[in-house]
Amino acid sequence: PFSLLVVAGSGGHTTEILRLLSCLSESYSPRHYVLADSDKMSEAKIRSFEQKRAETFSESQFSLDRIPRSREVRQSWISSVLTTLHSILYSLPLTYKRKPDLILCNGPGTCVPVCLSAFLLGLLRIKRTIIVYVESICRVETLSLSGKILYYFSDYFIVQWPDLKKKYPKSVYLGRIV
Amino acid sequence: FRFKDSLAADLQSADLVISHAGAGSCLETLEKGKPLIVVINDKLMDNHQLELAKQLHRDGYVLYCNCSTLVETLQSMDLSALKPFPPGQPEKFASFLDKVFGLQ
After folding, report:
1. Where found in the cell (chain A) (predicted)?
2. A174–B92: do the CB atoms touch at under 8 Å?
3. How far is B94 from chain A (nearest CA, A)?
């Protein structure tokens, strides 16, 4: 089995990422969810998803952790760098503790510190984690800010529309997967 | 209606849905097979909301307009011209990951 760290951003991001997880086999367990501390609704969605999953799969282990939000919508560039660095102080020990085989994220600011932490742990030869980034279905022609950053740090960068595949040739295009 | 947990029941009983361009709203509506008119608010809109609405319109799944043209759109709309929306395929993602991890 491969342990999985799932970054759950607020609102639509969580719904999308749970859809991505919907067809995964039992081999992807345990699932460690990471949420932003200010996110109220994602926890309920995740628990509901895991509860349903437990009806089918006997081996259903998951955990939930929270880290400070890296960036508010439309926050300025400079302050975003500072708040992201602050989030890394939390995401680094968390990623170190969980040492996931796979990190899955789909665009919220929360994923940047988490993926950078995993990348760093990889460089330091502490744990080699495969980072899979799936750009949100909302992104048809342009990448999100997280996407633009993680295009260079992820192992697999998945886009859901052909225009993006053309613009970002190193990406993977599987069509609409949510 | 403020932050109801789910609009699924309301969506199911509707004949026509008029919505903002949020991805969740659009996709949930299209997946229920309901005709959808997306209203773009030029003042509030995040650029990226517009991308999805435009693409869905280009592909023939939704009608789209802005606040001032809504009435006109409602008067002249042809809902039968809208195409059915095929569901997304998360199984392709699962399959992809299985290959990455050598499970296939």
Report:
1. Endoplasmic reticulum membrane
2. yes
3. 5
Whole-structure pTM over 0.95, yes or no?
no
Establish if A40 touches chain B: CB-CB under 8 angstroms. no
Nearest to B100 among A23, A130, A140 (CB): A130
B14/chain A closest Cα distance in angstroms: 22
The β-bridge partners of A28 are A2
- Residue written as token pair 């011209």: B81
Inform me whether the pLDDT recorded for A42 exceeds 80.
Answer: yes
* DSSP 3-state percent helix, strand, coil across chain B (nearest 5): 50, 10, 40
pLDDT, tens digit, 9 for 90 and up, residues B7-33: 777 888 888 888 887 777 888 889 989
Asked whether the beta carbons of A111 and A131 are under 8 A apart, the reply is no
State in words which class domain A4-173 has.
Answer: alpha beta
Residue of A25, A137, A158 lying closest to B23 (CB–CB)? A137
Residue A62 has pLDDT above 60, yes or no: yes
List domains and CATH numbers for chain B.
7-95 (3.40.50.2000)
Residue of chain B whose alpha carbon sits nearest to that of A45? B5
Range with the largest mean pLDDT of A28-37, A55-64, B45-54: A28-37
Complex confidence, ipTM: 0.92
- The burial class, CB within 10 Å (0-12 / 13-18 / 19+), for A55 is exposed
Q: Which two three-digit tokens encode residue B27?
A: 């996709």
